[in-house]
Design brief:
- This protein is an alpha/beta fold.
- The strands form four sheets. A nine-stranded mixed beta sheet has the order 9-10-8-7-6-5-4-1-11, with helices on both faces. Strands 12-13-14 form a three-stranded antiparallel beta sheet, with no helix packed on it. The chain has a three-stranded antiparallel beta sheet with strand order 15-17-16.
- α1 crosses α12 and α8 runs parallel beside α10.
- The relative contact order is 0.12.
- It binds iron/sulfur cluster.
- The site of iron/sulfur cluster has 11 residues, from loops.
Length: about 425
């Protein structure tokens, strides 16, 4: 297999969960029988084979730049190497997300991973992650996952408070979450992420602090802390509207954020993105690929791919997706080539999520020279219009300060709604020069 490949990462979507949590609006389905899930897994293999055939036709000139930085370790890869990844190498990450991939029998995931390795170039040191729910694991399953080649587990713990877990519809309790970590360690996993949510109904700063302390004692390499987001049409939204549940207020949430920052940094976890913390440089390579706007392939129901400026989305319903893939039919249902204006906005909004921010040298490489002068002026005036100290430019680095990261949503809305940006791209009629 050639070492040249147009995607830096592969995402595999497994859309099944034992049952649905009340806040979830992902493309997931609870209570689906084993026969149907098995059919979906076989269809995934067909989609992977068909995608590999399609992508084989992509063969840019050889470039060993990425390999050089990859070999120098994750930090060098983050700082310098990612810019070489654009369309030039083997997969640096494979990520099984969902849904609950760990709900599937280990042999299914193992077959899919083997299938991937047969048809795609995979870097020897690639990060290979599966998402797991503590209520679906046992020592043997974890051992089989590790033997299959997975080297990272992302565990949805969310809280270590049993009452809260029950309230939000999780199938596990705190004890199972703690056991899952020690079982994973015994199975040989030395790269574990624990997902947490704060701002849950009825949660207080004290309850959150206890969860964080318990999580830190487990010494995971990586911790993700997401603020609860109330999505339209979810059972959570209805319970809030009817008053059965209430959310903590802004002051309580701010106190939780302060506790998070203080406890995690005091225990050696570096924040490297709005919601993500790692110790010993164990950043999530897969997410770094997204945040650096690098190309990725997504397979499975509703999965999104971003390759060579095109964004493609696969059929959302698992049944329909499986039927199409099994019949060798085209599984994508939407596709658009992003305009340069959209790429500029996305590049800023994704890159500014990271604490290190954007390397502007690479930013300019990605946009036509004819635009540089006006875009630099726009950046200067955009920084100046924000309250002082939120968005900073130092040398080649453009980044949000701590205060800026907390206000990132507001700043991103301003980038999206900025009329002058649209004028600049329109004035140059530059979309004809898409790269
Ligand atoms: S386990 Fe995760 S994907 Fe499944 S329903 Fe709950 S939140 Fe959604």
């Amino acid at each position: 297999m050639t070492a040249i490949f147009p995607a830096a990462a592969l995402y595999v979507h497994i859309p099944f969960c034992r049952s649905r949590c009340i806040y979830c609006d992902f493309n997931t389905y609870g209570g689906v029988g084993e026969a149907e899930r098995g059919r979906y897994h076989r269809a995934l293999l067909q989609d992977l084979n068909a995608s590999a055939q399609l992508l084989k036709t992509y063969s840019p000139a050889a470039d060993t730049g990425l390999q050089h930085f990859w070999m120098a370790g994750p930090r060098a890869f983050l700082n310098e190497g990612l810019k070489y990844a654009h369309g030039r190498s083997a997969l640096k990450s494979i990520y099984f997300g969902g849904g609950t991939p760990s709900y599937a029998p280990a042999v299914w995931l193992s077959e899919i991973l083997d299938g991937i390795k047969k048809v795609f170039p995979v870097d020897e040191a690639a990060e290979i992650t599966f998402e797991a729910n503590p209520g679906t694991l046992c020592p043997q399953k974890l051992y089989l996952f590790r033997q299959a080649g997975f080297n990272r587990m992302s565990l949805g713990v969310q809280s270590l408070d049993d009452k809260l877990l029950h309230k939000i519809g999780r199938i596990h309790n705190a004890c199972e979450a703690v056991q899952a970590v020690s079982m994973a360690r015994r199975a040989g996993f030395d790269n574990i992420n624990l997902d947490l949510i704060y701002g849950l109904p009825g949660q207080t700063e004290t309850v959150w602090r206890t969860t964080l302390q318990g999580i830190i004692e487990l010494r995971p390499e990586h911790i993700s802390c997401y603020a609860l987001s109330v999505e339209e049409g979810t059972p959570l939204e209805k319970k809030l509207a009817s008053g059965i549940m209430t959310l903590p207020g802004d002051d309580e949430c701010e106190a939780m954020e302060n506790t998070r920052d203080a406890l995690l940094s005091a225990n050696g976890y570096r924040q490297y993105e709005i919601s993500n913390y790692a110790r010993d440089g164990k950043y999530c390579i897969h997410n770094l690929i997204y945040w650096n706007n690098l190309p990725y392939l997504g397979v499975g129901a509703g999965a999104v791919s971003y390759i060579n400026g095109w964004r493609m989305t696969r059929q959302k319903l698992p049944d329909r997706y499986a039927e199409l893939a099994a019949g060798g039919m085209y599984v994508c249902c939407e596709g658009e080539r992003l305009s340069l204006l959209s790429r500029w906005r996305e590049y800023l909004m994704l890159g500014l999520r990271t604490v290190d921010g954007i390397n502007t040298e690479y930013l300019w490489e990605r946009f036509p020279k004819a635009l540089h002068c006006e875009l630099k002026e726009w950046l200067q005036s955009f920084c100046a219009e924000l309250p002082p100290g939120l968005l900073k430019a130092e040398g080649r680095r453009l980044y949000l300060s701590q205060a800026g990261l907390r206000l990132s949503n507001e700043i991103f809305v301003r980038i999206l709604e900025d009329g002058e940006l649209a004028h600049i791209f329109r004035r140059h009629n530059i979309d004809a020069l898409r790269r």
